[in-house]
Each structure stands twice: as C-alpha cells, then as structure tokens.
Amino acid sequence: MCEQTSRTRQTHNNVPTTRTTTMAAAAFAAVSDGNVDVAGARWVREQPEHWRVKGKVLDIEGLEGSIWATAEFRKQVFNDDAGPVNNVLVTPVAAAGGATTTVRVKTRTPHHGAQAGLLLYASDADWVKLVVEGAKTAGHTMIVLAQQSDFKPVVLAKAKLGEVAAETWIDLRLQSSSNGTVAASFRLVQGGDAAPWQQLDEATASLAADAQPPHTVAIMAHSLGPGAWASFTNLNTSAPTV
C-alpha cells in the first residue's frame, strides 16, 4: 500500500478526514489516466488494510457488504446484512452533463452477488452502477446495470458472459446525457486485445436530479469472498471535477 502521509483517522463513515482524502487522492491518481484533478477524491468507509496500489493498478479487497436498498430490507429479504460496502473510492469527477467514463476491471466472481465495477454515486441512497457480477450459475459472470433512488433499487439490464478466464479484463463504460439518462456498455480485453463495445440491451439509467450531493464517479468491490481482490486500472473520463 502507499505510504500513509497522515495518521488522522476517519471520524464518521461519510465524513472524509485528512488521511482519508490524502490516501484517496493517491489511489485515484494511480488508477486514473491523469487528466483530472485528484485532490477532491475521498474514501467512503475506508478500511486501509483492504486496498493497495501496484503501479497503475488499484486493488480493492471484496469485503462483505451491500448498498442495495436499506439494512432493514436486506435483513427481511436476504435474511442477512453485513453492513454497507467498505472502501468505495469516490472521485471529484462529475457524473452528469454528457460525461463518458470508463474503467478496466479484473476480478473473480465466485457466487451470485459478488461484484466489482463503476458507480455514479451521490450517497448510499442514490446511485447508478455498472458491475461485473457473479451469476446464479456457479462460476459464471454477468454484467449488471442497476440504479437506486431514495433507497429504491431496480435492475435495468443484464448480459450473461458465462465462464470468464481469470486473466481477462473487462472494460465498463457509462455515458450520461444532458437530460440525466445514462447508457451502459462493456467489452472484454484479452491479451491486450479489446473486443467491440456491447451496449446493454439499449437500457438506460437515470440520475436523480435532486440527489445531494450530486452524483460523481466512484468504484467499488464487495462480497468477493475471503482474501479475494478486484483490480482496477485505466479510469478515463471526459467530465470535469465538481
């Protein structure tokens, strides 16, 4: 992991401190293509021992957690709740207004719900996500587009990939429009060769116009299993910082 430049600890799950913002900026700088100011990046619920930087790759350990609906809902429907997702890297990059954002992800998804990917994040209550996720068939992977507004989630589209080789990277892309809709696409990258982009069934998400704070670009990984990590690189965006 990068050397910690400050020992100030986080005092609240969603309130960044000096250490949190300093280390988030370092993580964002490592994974991004260098075209944005990284100073406003922050970790949400940072667990420092569960993320690391290796060159231009950011690894996040997929700890148990969820931001799907509310804790009460998860307990009622899934009979369990491990708490919210840790180590959400929230960047200062605006999500709305015609922005295009891509990130390259490599992870294993050993079971249904294990996931890693790209978020347009306002809070745990309001987000759009495009993730690499484990399918119900063991060992199979899918791409999922979903959104949540005021803790009300909905799955918008899925693309089943079947079994994906461990060395395969997957590019995820979210494209917002001026009216707040968001289109999602993905492509597989093997041996440095990228396949054509595939859009998710012409499905679109929408950003909640009244979300506060406004949506910005974020990345996350969760529920991958003990000791399992997701790798991120090539975070690229056409959007300005907020």
List the helices and strands and how they pair.
Blueprint: H1 18-31, E1 42-44, E2 51-54, E3 57-61, H2 71-78, E4 88-94, E5 100-106, E6 115-121, E7 127-134, E8 141-149, E9 152-162, E10 169-176, E11 181-190, E12 193-194, E13 198-206, E14 216-222, E15 229-237
Antiparallel strand pairs: 1-4, 2-3, 3-15, 4-14, 5-10, 5-15, 6-7, 6-14, 7-8, 8-9, 10-11, 11-12, 11-13
What does this structure look like?
The chain has 242 residues and is mostly beta strands. The protein has 2 helices and 15 strands. The strands form 2 sheets. Strands 2, 3, 5, 10, 11, 12, 13 and 15 form an 8-stranded antiparallel beta sheet that branches. It has a 7-stranded antiparallel beta sheet with strand order 1-4-14-6-7-8-9. It is globular, with a radius of gyration of 16 Å. The relative contact order is 0.22. The model is unreliable at 1-13 (pLDDT under 50).
